[in-house]
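A favour, since you know our structure tokens better than I do. Just paste the record in under my message, thanks.
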Amino acid sequence: MERGQWLVFLPGVLPSYISAEQYERNMRRMDANRSRAQGMGAVRDGPALLAGLVRCGRCGRKMTVRYQRGPGGTLQPAYVCGMAAATWAEQRCQQLAGPCVDDYVSGLALQAMAPAALEISLAAAEQEERQRSETDRIWRQRLERADYAADRARRQYQLAEPENRLVVRQLEKDWNEALAERQRLGEDYDRHLAARPRALSAAERDQIRALAADLPAVWHAETTTDADRKQLLRHLIEEVTVTVIGGSEKADVEVTWAGGHRTTGRVTRPVATLAQLSYLPLLRRRAGELLAAGSTAAQIADALNTEGLRPPKRTAVFTVNSVRELLSALGLAHTRAPALRPALGEHEWWLRDLAEHLGMSKVTLDSWVRRGWADGYLHPEARLIVVRADPAEVERLRALHQMPRGQHMRRPWQQNQAASASADEEGSQDNDDQPRL
């Protein structure tokens, strides 16, 4: 029942373990930790810093986080709006790589915290002094208890009758043990004060100020976990709305800060194909101009990187190989002369030439060679892949390329099913041929 529907509310009438305010804070925290569309969910250890904060700018639903393994086995997060697709079998709204949004929002958060660096340093110093004062208070309480125990053992020994020798002997032993324990605690307390005094030293205060002034270093430190970064961002940000512009590499980001202030910006996300790049016409024109001027692949790559143009996928800059792939995809002349390649035998193809002949990606054909779907080897002189394919093999590879995705995985299963069915039929015929008793 909601609180507004209560008939009677008498807080503080009976003794309780926690206050009513603490109980309500705990309930709000538990409600926020629930993994559902309305809440942010509990903080987890994944590298996606904005998990639970990102919302789709097209439909308004909360975007979920999906991870995939990247180079070296690292987790690469992506924010996906797939609620409509999972619930109503509709088309997925949008998705984008997580690091581009995380880096942008983290930079804004560090800028927002920069003016408060001095206040942070003072608050950190005060907190450290409070912790040291609390530790010192606990030590003094332990010493007081040891003094009381020693004084009580002394009084018990003095009040005992001398005739009770066994009792007096035990009381004397207890008194000595209490005095030894008091001395041991006093020595431990002296060593504690020598290693960590009650008040902060000037060097420690300077170190705290330096850490507070260099917030990016603290943010990117190895000792700062992803959970710590997420918790800090949740204190500063209420939600982040992301809207991908069409199918391009541009995405608008709106950050709603705690208190209602909004900040808008635009980020660049990695895309899968050249056709998704918004600056594809400019890229085609510049690549053609540089090629016509006689520039090499390395020079074209340097020029495109200097002008701020980027390739698709998760590549930050153009390389010699990516420029050659770009020129091939744009239908421009190749920068590498085929005459420089060694002569091949009959029914042998360079991997790039065969891929163009089949109308497929050379990366896909290279994976086929590695899997054993195509017969190929590494040329010892040119250090390039050579594929052996006669006309029949070329047609087989063409048919394999035109096969629907996943069909090559279903065909062996279908063949096994057909073989099993044939075996069952033969077994039933053999049983029919046997004489019946």
